[in-house]
Design brief:
Rossmann fold, five-stranded parallel sheet, binds adenosine monophosphate, binds magnesium ion
Length: about 270
């Protein structure tokens, strides 16, 4: 899975990375789904251990273009996990109260505490993506944010947070097909927004902004993973594998009880 991690100080061009890459696990969808099931069960146990130990904090950032699959990842990768153990924070257009503060204010409040997993559905990266592409702030303002963000994430990491960032990479054709599917299915009309078409019109500018983000903010303490996401099952599998690997790497232990169970009688 390391093939999808962006090493620090790498110049990234999404155009050079296939969103349909499937070099590992090309045995296919059926086996891939079985493996995902095993991974989600492992994730359930690891989340319980994380909570019981109460030491580590885990932040998972999801960024993607519209229809990229952020909701699907949350639904499928976390399907077995105790809902008490994982919280999702979704970042929308900032409210007037949020806009009255610096752009990291609303984000910092949502970061995980000890024993928690937090998923960011969009994140502070919108402040160097949509803001950059749609000219919502002058260049001198968003330009310095890459540095702020790296230092903010360093703070989180220094204080015990494991930060994993996933960029879901899909092609323009795949987005087109997914938007059309939303239009074709009455049950999915609610998921369609004409705003998605307005953003799609800026596809190339977004690719440039993603390239800059990935090139400038993949750090040793908060790496980006570019996940080939044209195939949904493969996307879920890769993310689950990376997440399980990261949690296993924490070397967690259940805490020793401060009593001797053999000496206690339950009447
Ligand atoms: P969705 O995730 O599809 O519900 O859409 C949320 C929308 O909020 C997206 O179009 C984002 O680009 C937008 N958004 C999120 N954060 C910001 C931000 N900091 N500034 C402007 N727009 C944002
Ligand atoms: Mg949307």
């Amino acid at each position: 899975m390391e093939r999808y991690r962006i090493p620090p100080d790498t110049t990234v061009r999404l155009a050079d990375r296939s969103p349909s890459d499937r070099l590992t696990h090309d045995e296919g969808k059926k086996v891939g789904r079985q493996y995902l099931t095993e991974l989600t069960l492992r994730l359930r146990d690891l989340q319980e251990l994380l909570y019981a130990e109460g030491k580590h904090k885990v932040l998972m950032v999801l960024q993607a273009t519209d229809t990229g699959g952020k909701d699907g990842v949350i639904r499928h990768v976390f399907r077995t996990v105790n809902p008490q153990g994982v919280k999702v924070a979704s970042f929308k257009v900032p409210s007037s109260r949020e806009r009255a503060h610096d752009y990291l204010w609303r984000v910092h409040k949502e970061t995980p505490g000890s024993g928690e997993i937090r998923i960011f559905n969009r994140s502070h990266y919108e402040d160097v993506l949509v803001v950059r592409v749609r000219d919502l702030a002058p260049q001198e303002v968003w330009e310095r944010r890459y540095h702020h963000i790296n230092e903010f994430e360093r703070l989180l990491a220094d204080e015990g947070t494991t930060v994993l960032k996933f960029f879901l990479h899909i092609s323009k054709e795949e987005q087109g097909a997914r938007l059309q599917a939303r239009l074709d299915d009455p049950d999915r009309h609610w998921k369609f927004s004409s705003a998605d078409l307005a953003e799609r019109a800026h596809w190339d500018a977004y690719q440039e902004a993603y390239d800059a983000m990935l090139s400038r903010t993949s750090t040793p303490w908060a790496p980006w993973y570019v996940i080939p996401s044209n195939s949904k099952w493969y996307r879920n599998l890769v993310i689950a594998r990376i997440l399980v690997g990261a949690l296993e790497g924490l070397g967690m232990q259940y805490p020793e009880p401060d009593f001797d169970p053999a000496t206690i009688r339950v009447d």
